Amino acid sequence: MTVEQVFREEHGRAVAVLVRVFGDVDVAEEAVQDAFAEAVRRWPVSGPPPSPAGWIITTARNKAIDRLRREAVRDGKQVQAALVGDVEPVEEGVVRDERLRLIFTCCHPALAPQARVALTLRLLGGLTTAEISRAFLVPEKTMAQRLVRAKGKIRDARIPYRVPEKEDLPERLSGVLAVIYLVFNQGYGGRDELAAEAVRLGRALAELMPDEPEVLGLLALMLLIESRRPARMVDGELVLLGDQDRGLWDRALVAEGQALVRRCLRMNRPGPYQIQAAVNAVHSDAARAADTRWDQILKLYDQLMVVAPTPVAALNRAVAVAEVEGAGAALAIVDELDLPGYYLFHAIRADLLRRLGRVGDAAAAYDRAIETVENEAELAFLKRRRSRLP
């Protein structure tokens, strides 16, 4: 197993363990980074240890202790440095999953909602500032400042990294759901281990809060999207939903996701994740792309725009409008949106222009999408589409 593989699979757990042990996010994150840097130096020579994850956590813990002891000399942290060598067991509390605990503790109400999500993506997923900024559609510099402010708030306000009490869970739920879904989206864009981790966390959260319909809705949404992964890439090339071989879809995940959607419907407390899951359930009901009930999907997006109106939701709704009312009606909606840094905005606009026969405008829109996309598979797909214009 390579250092990169271990980083992708174990970074979040290592940080979660170190945060629980030391109660300091900066100490934990820096120690884990130091441990991986040490692995980069040593493993190519000596080979990976029998338990790579255990080696990382142990090495990170030792490096954190060394760092705190050094700082104790000049910062008066003698007591903290003396105690870290003999850490008392931490109670499990109501949240027993290590990484899920980290998400809940990061989603403290004292932090701004976007800061909670960004910080958890950084700590749990090991995402770079650039990757997080793309997920939020903001400049990298803006995201870097947001992360610094979030850590400063934790430090200055002495926000404890502890297991939340049962009554604290609901108020932190929206941030937790957003984190898990963004981790999943990063994984579906090419980092398989992040998508698998998001699904695992979604299952753990559903077990923890089985009566929260949005928790079930998020899990259903991820399962239905994940079910299509085997058909999404063929011979290294991206395949759009309408062109996929539906015989390759994971029918067990489809069935599980659809069952969760039906369970949500019985609860009758609709929310954005449930509605998006229902959209994907309609897609999974169609044996062929031509059988898709776009009228149902459009009604669901209409509901989503009432419950949680966002520019991205409006963009997705425009795709359904194109199927029901035509590309012209959809383009009128898209042209009213302000998403200049979002590659899908330009890609969808390019496709609508192509369908309307506006080849020159379509080419320009494809060029803009190519400039803003980051994923290699999606970049290659857009270049193919661009090259096929008349």
In short:
With 390 residues, this protein is mainly alpha-helical. Helix content is 71%, strand content 1%. The chain has helices spanning 3-22, 25-46, 52-75, 78-83, 98-106, 113-125, 129-136, 140-156, 173-188, 192-208, 213-226, 229-232, 251-267, 272-285, 294-307, 311-325, 327-334, 343-355, 359-372, 376-387; strands at residues 233-234, 237-238.
Word description of this protein:
- The protein has 390 residues and is mainly alpha-helical.
- The protein has four domains: 90 residues; 78 residues, Arc Repressor Mutant, subunit A (Orthogonal Bundle), CATH 1.10.10; 96 residues, no CATH class; 81 residues, Alpha Horseshoe (Serine Threonine Protein Phosphatase 5, Tetratricopeptide repeat), CATH 1.25.40.
- 71% of the residues lie in helices and 1% in strands.
- It has 20 helices and two strands.
- A two-stranded antiparallel ribbon has the order 1-2.
- The longest helix has 24 residues.
- The radius of gyration is 23 Å and the shape is globular.
- The relative contact order is 0.06.
- About 4% of the residues have low confidence.
Counting structural domains, the number is 4
**Radius of gyration in whole Å, from Cα?**
23 Å
Continuous helix count: 20
Q: Please estimate the helix content.
A: over 70%
Main sheet overview: 2 strands, antiparallel
Oligomeric state of the chains? single chain
Sum up the overall morphology in one term.
Answer: globular
The string of secondary-structure elements, in order, is HHHHHHHHHHHHEEHHHHHHHH
Cα separation of the termini: 47 Å
Tally of strands? 2
Q: What is the beta-strand fraction? A: under 5%
Question: Strand order, biggest sheet?
Answer: 1-2
Mean pLDDT: 87
Q: Give the uncertain stretches in residue-range form.
A: 81-95
Structural class: mainly alpha
